[in-house]
What we know:
Layout: H1 2-19, H2 42-50, E1 57-60, H3 62-71, E2 77-80, E3 101-103, H4 111-122, E4 128-133, H5 139-150, E5 157-162, H6 169-179, E6 183-186, H7 190-194, H8 196-206, E7 210-212, H9 215-219, E8 224-228, H10 230-245, E9 261-266, H11 267-272, H12 279-282, E10 287-289
Parallel strand pairs: 1-2, 2-3, 4-5, 4-6, 6-7, 7-8, 9-10
Antiparallel strand pairs: 8-9
Helix pairs in contact: 1-10, 2-3
Amino acid sequence: MAEEIDKSLVAALQQGLRELGYLERRNIVIEQRYAAGRSEKLPEVLAELIRLKLDVLVTAGDPAAHAAKKATSAIPIVMVTSPDPVGTGLIASLAHPGGNVTGLSDFHGGVITKRLEVLKDVVPLMSRLAVLLNPANRSNPLQLKDIQAAAPAFHVKIIPLEVKGPEDIDDTFATIRKERPGALLVVGDRLFATHQTRIFEFVGKTRLPAIYSQRGYVDAGGLMSYGANFADQYRRAATYVDKILKGAKPADLPVEQPIKFEFIVNLKAAKQIGLTIPPNVLARADKVIR
């Protein structure tokens, strides 16, 4: 399922490249590789790509960007959807990245707490919130800190649930059943995108309201998402590829942050768990799936 999402985002990158005059197999070749949400596979995948002597590496998400930076200092890297590239040490600053990494951040500073706010609006009596995160993703613990800092204002206790690999998912579900939180917040990570069907099945059986990092989850059957438009970010990544192929240095290309975030609601998923989305929340949605 995650690979299907990846393909749709790669299609957005290809569209952006076409708009800039790049046609695949004519004047550009795109090599695609997937690690299926397993960070430990990234060095092997990157080693294979580096042997191809690429002109540019485009990475999806924080772990891939860090693995790419560790693997090569020579090949320019265009990161996409990296939540906090300064905080995790990918770049020196947004305005002056330095090194061989630039691209786009999906800016999770205030975004992650906005998801908490949305959940509280949808589930007003929520007093305990489970947060699913992957500690191997450097941005995930930083986002957890943001949620924990904001939680007291919403009178919510945070229950952090670390998932390092697929083998941890069932134990995590058992913990959720035991803790009985009022809702679930899934922090953005490739591991969760890869296993989103398992998450959907679980929240459906337990009738647990959940919010995700981007609309790909909601299009696939999730309840709600709030975050940057990933397809737009991939289209924008094409401009970085273009500039680098024309001689620009990543160190000199400021990292772009999204100026618009989208809130998506799936009423089909709400109906399945017996949840009524308040009219004032629906009115704020950028898209409602009925």
